[in-house]
Each structure stands twice: as C-alpha cells, then as structure tokens.
C-alpha cells in the first residue's frame, strides 16, 4: 500500500516536472461542472493516492484566489491524470472527491498562481513521508500536533514544518487536514467511521463554544510562539469537512477571515478535547492500576464504622502535625484497616511515629531526594534485576516483564541500595518494597521503605553479617519454648530450628509465602511495632496451628507443612492468628532473650578463649620446666664430675692407707722381730749374768 | 560418616539404610532450587528467590542399600553467605552449581570450593561441580571443557545439567550416591570392617545438625 502510494507520488512529481497537460484531462477537469459525470468517470477509472487528493484540493483552493493561469492547470491536470492512471483501488476516496469537487467554482479559468506551483513542488516529497508514516505513527503525530497548535491538521505535520512561507503553510495545513482525513477515509472503512465521528464531535463542540473561546485564540498562538502573520491569502479554505459548505464563491476578506478564525478555534478545541481525553484516560488507567494493585482478599474486612474512624483521622486538617491518641490508633488498627485507605493509613502511622519520636533514632540515612537517587547507578543492579521477575510473579501488577510494576520496583530497590550502602540490596527486600508499592505511589513507597528500614529498625536484620537474623531465630525458639512448650519439644525432637522455616518470615515480612490479605495485616502492625510484630505473628501462627503441626512425625513433613500448607490455610485461621497478635506483649522477653543470646555467645567466646590461654600457660610452664630441667641436668653433670673426682681421691687414699697399713704391719713385724731378738739377747745375757739383764730391761722401760 | 537410621538397619551387609546431608551452593539464580525440585519432584517451575534455606528429602532404593538424601537448598545472594555455614555444617556432599551462560557464576563456585576446603577434610565430603542450564546452549559462556578441567584438577565430580529440560539431573545425584557408597565401603573394609562402621555410625548421630543457632 505504501509502496503504491510512493509510486504514485513519483508519478505526481514526474507529471509536474514534465508539465504535460493531456488534453482529455483538462476536459475532465472542466467537466467537473457535471459532478455526477465526473464521479462516474472517477469511479470507473480512478485510482487515487494521498498526494493526488491533496493536490486536487490544493488546486481547488488556489483557484479561489482568482483566475488560474496555465501553470495551475498543469498541476490540476497532472493530478487528475494521476487520478486516472494510478493503480490505487479506493473508490471511497473518489466519492469523497466528488463531495468536495462540486464546491469548486466551475468554469473558472484554470489558472494557478506561481506560488501554488511552488507549493505543490514543496509538497511533492513531504507527502511521501506522510503517507508512509501516518498510519503507523498516528499517536506520535498527534503528540506533535499538540505542540503545534496553529497547524490545523490532526495527523499531518511534516509538510507543515517544511513549508517555507507562512501563508503557504496555512494553506497547506488546511489542505492537509482535509487531505489526510480523506486519506484516512480511503484507507479503510473503519477510518471513515472514525473520521465522521470526529467530525461530529468537532462540530458539536465547536458550535456552542466558538464565541467564548475566540479571545483565547491568540494567547494560544503566543504560547506556542507561532503566531502566523495574517495574510489576505489566508481565508482560502472555506469548504471541506470543517464547516458548512458556503454557496458563495466570492467572499469578502472579512468573511474569509471570520471563517479562518472559526476553523482555527475549532481546531484548537479539538486538540484540547484530545488532551482532556488523554488525561481522562490516564486517570482511568490510574484507577485501573489501583484496582489491579489492590486485588487481594482481605482477611478481616473492615467494618463501616471503623472505616469511618479512619476516614475521620485521615481527613483531619493539619494531620501531619497533630498527635493522635496512641490507644485510639492501636485499637483502630486492631479492628481493621480498609484496603483502599491502607496506603494512606501507613503513611499516617509513619507520620505519627515521627511526631512521637521527634529526635530521629540512631542512624538516619542521608536525605538525598528520591529523584537524585534515581539518576545514579547502583552496583547491585544485577542482583535486583534477577529478582524483579521473581517477586510476586503471579500478581497482575508485577507479572508483566518490565511492566509498570517491575519498573517501579526496580526504581525503589535501586534507590534504596544507593541510600543505604551497607545493606545495599538484600534478597527479601524486593517483597517488602513490592507490598508497599501495591498500596501507594512509587515515591511514597520508597519513603515508607526508608521508614520501615531505618525508623522501625528492620534494616539491621539485612546487614551483611546477619547476626541479627541469628539472634531473631534464637529469640523465636525461646519464645516458642515459653508459649508452646509441647510444640517446642516436638520440633526439637526432630531437630527443627526456626532457621529452617522462619528466615523468610523475617526477611520478607511473610510476603514471599503468605496471601496478600494476611501480609497487609502484618504490615499494618509492622508500622506500629516494627519487627516485634513479626515475632508475634510467627508465634501466633505456630500456636494456632499447633495440633496440625503435632500430627506430623518427621522433619520433612513438618517443614513442608509449615512452609507450604500453613500459608494457605483458611481466612478464619488467619483472622484468628492476627487477632491474637494484638493481645500479645513480648517486648520484655525479646529484650531478655537478646541479652541471653549475647551472654551465651560471650560465654562461648570466653570458653574458647580460656582454652587458648590454658594452652598458652601450659606451653609456658612446659618451656620453663624444660629450662629448669636443662639447668638441673647441667648441675647433675657437674656433681657427677665431682663425684668422680672424689671417688678418685678416695681410691688414692685407700691405696695409701693400704700402703700405710702394710708399713705398720712391717714395722710391727720388725718390732716383734726386734723384741724377739732382744729377748734372745737378754736370755743370752741372763744366762751369763742374770741381774744386769734385768736392770737393763728396767732401764729400757724407763726410757 | 553417614548414619544408618534405625528402621532400615538390619544386619550388617544385608541392606543398610544411609542418610546423607547434601547441600546446594552457588550464585543467585543459577538454578539450585530448580535442580532440587527437578530431582525430587521431577518437575520444573520458576522459583521465588530462596531466602535463608529450603529443604527437600529423597530416598533411593538401591539393590545394595537404601540411601536417603536430605537436600539443603541455600540462598544464593552473597549477602547470605554469612548464614550459609549454618546450613552446610556436617554435610556429606555438596553440589557447587553454576550457570553455563554466566561466566562469573563459575568463579563464585570456585570460591565456594575454597570455603568448603577450609571447613572439611577431603575425605569428609563429596563435592560435585554442576554446570546448569544447558538448555541455554546458545548463550553459553563457559565451555564444557573449562568446567571439566577445573573439576578434574580439584578432584570433583562434574556434570552439565538442565533442570528445565531434565538433562542429567538424576545422573549427577546418582553419581554422588555411588561415590558416597564407595567411600562407605572403602571405610568399612579398611580396618576390621564391622566394628569400624558401627562406631562411625554412632559417632555421627548425635553430632548431626547439632545446633542451628
């Protein structure tokens, strides 16, 4: 089709360039005074293109300026010749043409001013684009049109923009609008219908409002900076689909001017209507989106009077600066939260929290505006993108790949990862952000995420070391021990700790497994109490399904029950679970168990430290003993040396003693021998003289 | 190493029942949960990201023995690595899963191997390297040889699988079963066979999954 048209355009161009007016065509043109006849002719033979219709209109218009010269007839003729020879099979256009043609001044000399010739040559290439792009890009075109009010055409812009002189442009645009409408007609019956529908609206609206709108016309032009100089050539197009067909051929400039005014005003109106229409459609889309987002079953439908209480609180003037009674808020949340006000109520609860805690708690993030964050790049992009399609994949708002829901979710998570560099993006967060997004706009959802993470302290469980998560698991197991001893023992018996089933409860606030009606109730409480609410819900959930859990007798079925069956139990159970939560108070235990955990942890560290120290000590003792040992060994060696010395001395002494003894012995023997010898000698003396011997003996003793 | 659970424990050698803990480790979205699901339920579905850990069991009834697998499926995001040790403690086998269409996931699997080598002695745990998503062959970034080579140099079992098109999922788990049983036999026959294994079994029981926080 497009190709055909383009071919036709070439024809037109060629025809013009060669400027060969076939005689029969001229006759045809003249014979348009008999419209019926001409119609038949056309119907039988004519195959038309967009440009042709355009050109015929053009020539029609140009004629209004006065007698046409021969160059005009060339144009006309060529267009008609095209009409006859082109291969476009669109009889409906011919009919259109027929409607238009009778208004032509019949019999006027077929002459065209040079300017028209220029015009047609200008248009030569433009319509090519137009015919190609028009059906496909009608939306963009319309958008274009909005920014170029003075052009009358709704669907054709390019030619207007390219036409060099203002009067021409005005002409052109006028023609174009007709032309394009005709073209639209030509394209399909549907188009025809749309055209007439539009025309109807246009006429209907334009007529009554014409008067009141006319003063604003120039303002509109000024706004757009395209105030066209008013030339006498302007009021050329009086006929066509835009207004009642005038029977007069000669009009006063004044009349023409009025007509122009009218046409312009009408066009402006039409554009405005379209704008309005778009706005309406947008708001309708918003509504639809909201309905889509909030498409979940509430587990405790909010009663009317509770809804009224909420509405009253929400609509209090200066709400963000008034402290409401805490008890009242609590009881209202406990009684129920109307789904369609939920987002607003969460924001309200956050406001109230801020009023109560004037001094921001602990660390607050930098106050970078959301829009700024969106402009930056995050290192977590990969992780976020992976999880986009895995967050509420069955929810209609999030299911479309890179649809509105996923894009908003991406924006929030990206902004958060930039705001809180320590946490960045942590799996689980996408669910939290997703729930928020279902209840409010993207930017509000971001603010509320920030509120929950920083003010309500949820962020600590996502920190890189995840110690808080481990503490929470310990706390939950202790609470279970306190409140549901039998269940605790049952689970313990099968070695099921909370980390086996409860980690997602904490990290996604139940959102990854439980129905949204339940999750939104959890969030209601989360906005009041922070992560304490999760403990309560977990406890209450396990408690109220205790008999069922106790029925299961092995690790796999128990875990499977808690993970898969529990979230899909009936609304009644859910309601019961939630209502129990409002009666619980576990703040003290939580605190106690956190301390307990730390103490246990410290002891663990302590004992492990002691061991080390002991080892150290023992090693030290060992080495000192070794040293001592070494010293003693040295001493021993010295002593041994001494001993050997002494022993040697002893030996020497012993031998000398032996020698001495022997000497004594010999001396005694000598003495004995001497005594013997003396006795013998005394005997000998006594034998000779007894006395002297005795005296000698006595003498010897006395010595 | 493994413990024989009471019901199946008939006399030695006849038909013992072993229970093993198998843990799945690897980057985000490489298909850990899908592998487990394919293996246990023989089905494929899209998974939500695993937050914390999830748990499956599967029982093989083999001629020589009954082997029960407790499959622990962990969270992939690096953030969760600090809690992962809670889950792989006392594991008998580990599957290091990567995505053949994402090169960096193999790198991550290598890091996991280092981590496991710190915590386990080589004969304490059977480790398999698994290149998942062969259905995405057109987007492949890691060649089969690359994976196989890495597995060979580190003494790991290796297979490329697709949980989606059910390619070799069963095979890799079976390979693990065979390896575990082979080690079981080896251990049983090394010292005086009967006593050794019974001692082992008794030792194993109280230690298993001792404390999760």
TrEMBL record, chain A:
Its main location: nucleus. May act as a GTPase-activating protein for Rab family protein(s). May play a role in the cell cycle and differentiation of various tissues. Involved in the trafficking and translocation of GLUT4-containing vesicles and insulin-stimulated glucose uptake into cells. Residues 1-14 have a biased composition (Basic and acidic residues). Residues 336-530 form the Rab-GAP TBC domain. This is TBC1 domain family member 1. Residues 68-81 have a biased composition (Low complexity). It comes from Lepidothrix coronata. It is found in: Nucleus. GO terms for molecular function: GTPase activator activity.
UniProtKB/TrEMBL annotation, chain B:
Its cofactor is Mg(2+). PROSITE patterns: RAB, RAS, RHO. SMART domains: ARF (SM00177), RAB (SM00175), RAN (SM00176), RAS (SM00173), RHO (SM00174). It is found in: Cell projection, Dendrite; Melanosome; Recycling endosome membrane. It is a lipid-anchor. CDD domains: Rab5_related. GO terms for molecular function: G protein activity; GTP binding; metal ion binding. This is Ras-related protein Rab-17.
């Amino acid at each position: 089709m497009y190709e055909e048209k383009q071919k036709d355009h070439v024809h037109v161009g060629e025809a013009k360039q060669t400027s060969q007016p076939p005689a029969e065509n001229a006759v045809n043109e003249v014979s348009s005074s008999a419209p019926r006849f001409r119609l038949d002719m056309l119907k039988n033979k004519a195959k038309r293109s967009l440009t042709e219709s355009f050109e015929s209109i053009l020539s029609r218009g140009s004629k209004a300026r006065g007698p046409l010269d021969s160059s005009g007839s060339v144009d006309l003729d060529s267009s008609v010749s095209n009409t006859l020879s082109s291969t476009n099979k669109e009889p409906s256009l011919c009919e259109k043409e027929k409607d238009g043609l009778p208004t032509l001044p019949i019999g006027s000399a077929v002459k065209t001013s040079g300017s028209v010739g220029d015009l047609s040559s200008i248009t030569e290439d433009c319509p090519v684009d137009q015919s190609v792009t028009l059906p496909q890009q009608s939306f963009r075109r319309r958008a274009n049109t909005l920014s170029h009010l003075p052009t009358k055409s709704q669907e054709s812009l390019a030619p207007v923009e390219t036409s060099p002189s203002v009067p021409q442009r005005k002409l052109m645009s006028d023609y174009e609008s007709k032309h394009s409408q005709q073209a639209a007609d030509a394209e399909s019956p549907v188009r025809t219908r749309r055209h007439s529908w539009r025309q109807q609206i246009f006429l209907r609206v334009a007529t009554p409002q014409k008067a009141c709108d006319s003063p604003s016309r120039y303002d509109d032009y000024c706004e757009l900076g395209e105030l066209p100089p008013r030339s006498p050539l302007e009021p050329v197009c009086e006929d066509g689909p835009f207004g009642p067909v005038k029977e007069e051929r000669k009009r006063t400039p004044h009349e023409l001017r009025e007509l122009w005014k009218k046409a312009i005003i009408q066009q402006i109106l039409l554009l405005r209507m379209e704008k309005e229409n778009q706005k309406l459609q947008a708001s309708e889309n918003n509504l639809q989106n909201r309905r889509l987002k909030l498409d979940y079953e509430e587990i405790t439908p909010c009663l009317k009077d509770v809804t009224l209480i909420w509405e009253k609180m929400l609509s209090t003037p200066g709400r963000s600066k008034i402290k409401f009674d805490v008890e009242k808020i609590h009881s209202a949340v406990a009684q129920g939260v109307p789904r369609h006000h939920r987002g607003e109520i969460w924001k309200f609860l956050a406001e109230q929290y801020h009023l109560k805690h004037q001094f921001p708690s602990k660390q607050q993030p930098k106050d970078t505006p959301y829009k700024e964050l969106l402009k930056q790049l995050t290192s977590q992009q990969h992780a976020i993108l992976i999880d986009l399609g895995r967050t509420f994949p069955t929810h209609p708002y999030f299911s479309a790949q890179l649809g509105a829901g996923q894009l908003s979710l991406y924006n929030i998570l990206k902004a958060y990862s930039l705001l809180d560099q320590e946490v960045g993006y942590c799996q689980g967060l996408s669910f939290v952000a997703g729930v928020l997004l279902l209840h409010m706009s993207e930017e509000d959802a971001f603010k509320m995420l920030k509120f929950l993470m920083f003010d309500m302290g949820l962020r600590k469980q996502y920190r890189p070391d995840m110690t808080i998560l481990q503490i929470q698991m310990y706390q939950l197991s202790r609470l279970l021990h306190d409140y549901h001893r039998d269940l605790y023992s049952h689970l313990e018996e099968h070695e099921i700790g909370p980390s086996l089933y409860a980690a997602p409860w904490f990290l996604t606030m139940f959102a990854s497994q439980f129905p949204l009606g339940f999750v939104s109730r959890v969030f209601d409480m989360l906005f009041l109490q922070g992560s304490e609410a999760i403990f309560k819900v977990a406890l209450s959930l396990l408690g109220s399904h205790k008999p069922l859990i106790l029925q299961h007798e092995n690790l796999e079925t128990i875990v499977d029950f808690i993970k898969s069956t529990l979230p899909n139990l009936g609304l009644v159970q859910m309601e019961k679970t939630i209502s129990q939560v409002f009666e619980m108070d576990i703040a003290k235990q939580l605190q106690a168990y956190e301390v307990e955990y730390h103490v246990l942890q410290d002891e663990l560290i302590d004992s492990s430290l002691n061991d080390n120290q002991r080892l150290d000590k023992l090693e030290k003792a060992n080495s000192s003993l070794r040293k001592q040992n070494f010293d003693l060994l040295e001493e021993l060696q010295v002593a041994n040396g001494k001993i050997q010395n002494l022993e040697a001395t002893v030996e020497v002494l012993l031998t000398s003693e032996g020698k001495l003894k022997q000497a004594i012995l010999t001396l005694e023997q000598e003495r004995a021998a001497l005594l013997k010898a003396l006795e013998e000698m005394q005997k000998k003396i006594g034998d000779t003289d007894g006395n002297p011997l005795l005296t000698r003996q006595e003498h010897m003793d006395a010595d | 190493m493994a413990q024989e659970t009471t019901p199946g424990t008939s006399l030695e050698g006849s038909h013992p029942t072993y229970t093993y803990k198998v843990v799945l480790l690897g980057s985000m979205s490489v298909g850990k949960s899908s592998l487990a699901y394919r293996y246990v339920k023989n089905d494929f579905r899209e998974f939500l990201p695993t937050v914390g850990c999830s748990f499956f069991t599967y029982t093989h009834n083999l001629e020589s023995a009954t082997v029960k697998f407790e499959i622990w499926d962990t969270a992939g995001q690096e953030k969760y690595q600090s809690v992962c040790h809670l889950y792989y403690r006392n594991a008998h086998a580990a599957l290091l899963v990567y995505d053949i269409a994402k090169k960096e996931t193999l790198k991550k699997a290598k890091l996991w191997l280092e981590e496991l080598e710190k915590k386990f002695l080589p004969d304490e745990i059977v480790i398999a390297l698994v290149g998942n998503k062969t259905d995405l062959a057109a987007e492949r970034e890691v060649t089969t040889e690359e994976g196989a080579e890495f597995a060979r140099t580190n003494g790991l079992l290796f297979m490329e699988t697709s949980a989606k098109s059910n390619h070799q999922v069963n095979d890799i788990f079976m390979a693990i079963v065979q390896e575990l049983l082979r080690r079981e036999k080896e251990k049983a026959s090394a010292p005086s066979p009967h006593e050794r294994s019974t001692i082992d079994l008794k030792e194993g029981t109280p230690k298993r999954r001792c404390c999760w926080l």
